[in-house]
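hey so i finally got around to running the thing on that chain from the lab meeting. sorry it took forever, my laptop kept dying and i had to restart like 3 times. anyway pasting the input first so we r on the same page abt which one it is
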Amino acid sequence: MTPRFGKYIRQLRTDNGMTQAALAARLHVTDKAVSKWERDLSYPDISLFPRLAEVLGVSVSELISAADNGGEPEQLTQIYRVSHDIRTPIHIIIGCTDLVERYADDPDQRRRYLEFIRISGKYLLERCEQLGKTASHPDDNAADLEEYFRTHADSTSRAGYDFTGKRILIVDDMELNREIAGEIIRESGAETVYCGDGLECVTMIESSPAGFFDLILMDLSMPVMDGIQATEKIRSLADSIKSKIPVIAMTANVSDNDRKKAFDAGMNGFAEKPIDTDALYELMKQNL
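ok and heres what got predicted. didnt touch it at all, straight out
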């Protein structure tokens, strides 16, 4: 990256009326990190580019272009696309790992979910190989991983989350995502119904009796009709019961812009992918 990248970041920050501390807080990094970026002593991790662009009011491509250094924008664009692309298989791996544990007495289901994990892992390996030598030092990764496992013991309790008698509509264009979410929801006692895009969701709500569905889990990015459009259609329904069904967004990327669009459309909250079961249950509890 060229020295002008730091100047570009500093100019955008000041144009938005933010101090270094304010920008750091929005990005969940330290003031020192932002200071180093602006002095071209270090640069943001590529995973921060979408969030950084959102906060500063520019596009990711504009941010990458400002980092021009002998063709580096093409490399950064490739890395960004790959990092974005691997979110879905990571979600599948984490979700299927939970399902393998739950189906300890069902060898057929366990084999099925293990196969999904194997395929997703193979895909991730192929995609990561495209990154070349851009990875950080393995010793740093090992230390970070050790710290993560040390501080993330499974001590949470799901007591108090009983949604027996509730019917949840899960809307996602990927069958496996629907299955993972469905297993998590059914563990709470709720019944699940599925559909694959926003238009099908709206049609299902319109054709069902008022009160048939208690809550909708809605993916944001879908073909035919996305989650934002579907929510807007639901909120405009003449039937006041149907139009007020709680809608929780399910998405792997939650930017400020995503949140604003979702809330403006009438959504009630966000469940990030990979799904944090307890966080999802708490959202459900708040809306049921």
